[in-house]
């Protein structure tokens, strides 16, 4: 029993160190207290309908699984020429560890084959994440960006010209970012 307590204490310390490292990196803002009720600033933009719909679907899935995760949804803003961007300031709490991050591309599912659709990020190609996920397929096409969140500067993606033709008028809403967080001290 002492060994188990020691393990959780060490794990909690490791998570705290990682959280403070990310907070010092300025790419992370690990000061969020995750209060359920709080005042909403007057200048907050309303999330897109796609983001709201995906939020509701995702939390229904989480409740069914009795999973204890924090999931944050963030709409994109316009970047340079046809880019969709997110701030490099990723919100987190000190007692949380990033589990995954996805960019979701909400598309009309009745259109052409979307399985080969790609995104570009800083000249690199992002392929769709087709594995099973907590995020319902109705939320859109998923592109994993977990390992790219620590980079300095904004996170921006572009739909390549050849993909825009494949996509046609199938983009329902601008892409949005979804991050999932686990509590470090779930003992």
From TrEMBL:
Signal peptide: 1-23
Keywords of the record: Signal
Superkingdom to which the source organism belongs: Eukaryota
The protein's name: Secreted protein
The organism of origin for this protein: Silurus meridionalis
């Amino acid at each position: 029993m002492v060994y188990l307590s020691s393990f959780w204490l060490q794990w909690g310390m490791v998570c705290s160190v990682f959280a403070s490292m990310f907070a010092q990196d300025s790419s992370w803002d690990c000061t969020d207290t995750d209060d359920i009720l709080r005042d909403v600033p007057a200048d907050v933009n309303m999330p897109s309908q796609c983001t709201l719909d995906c939020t509701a679907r995702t939390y229904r899935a989480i409740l069914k699984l009795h999973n204890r995760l924090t999931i944050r949804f963030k709409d994109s803003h316009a970047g340079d020429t046809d880019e969709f961007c997110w701030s490099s300031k990723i919100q987190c709490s000190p007692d949380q560890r990033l589990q995954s991050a996805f960019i979701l591309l909400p598309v009309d599912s009745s259109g052409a084959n979307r399985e080969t659709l790609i995104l570009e990020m800083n000249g690199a190609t992002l392929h769709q994440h087709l594995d099973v996920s907590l995020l319902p397929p109705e939320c859109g096409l998923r592109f994993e960006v977990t390992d790219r969140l620590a980079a300095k500067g904004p996170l921006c993606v572009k739909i390549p010209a050849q993909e825009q033709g494949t996509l046609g008028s199938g983009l329902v809403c601008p892409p949005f970012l979804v991050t999932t967080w686990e509590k470090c001290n779930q003992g």
